[in-house]
Design brief:
mainly alpha; elongated; 101 residues
Length: 101
């Protein structure tokens, strides 16, 4: 069980790395001066944990969708019935799912 929780911790961390990478690298900036919302791990942890109640596929998706620079990212994650959002949800909420098992 300790190994499962350790793996869940790693998946959780990986989820936030992947999320930050996608938000920063797939942002569609018109000019380099365009404002970009913070995408650091602390901010993303706070957004998902405290503001959006770990709701990756609902509330957090809506937040990302409301930023024009992430339009392509939302389209990409929405493909195949939202498979991308489901993967992100599984990763960033891996600790909670492991604890519930």
């Amino acid at each position: 069980q300790i190994a499962n929780f350790a793996m869940a911790e790693d998946m959780h961390a990986l989820g936030f790395v992947v999320l930050a990478l996608m938000l920063s690298s797939l942002a569609e900036l018109v000019t380099p001066e365009d404002p970009v919302p913070p995408t650091d791990e602390d901010t993303l942890q706070r957004l998902l944990g405290e503001i959006f109640d770990k709701d990756v596929k609902g509330q957090f998706r809506d937040y990302v969708m409301n930023e024009e620079i992430w339009g392509y990212l939302v389209e990409l994650l929405d493909e195949d019935g939202g498979a991308g959002w489901s993967i992100l949800d599984s990763l960033v909420n891996a600790r909670e799912k492991a604890a519930a098992a």
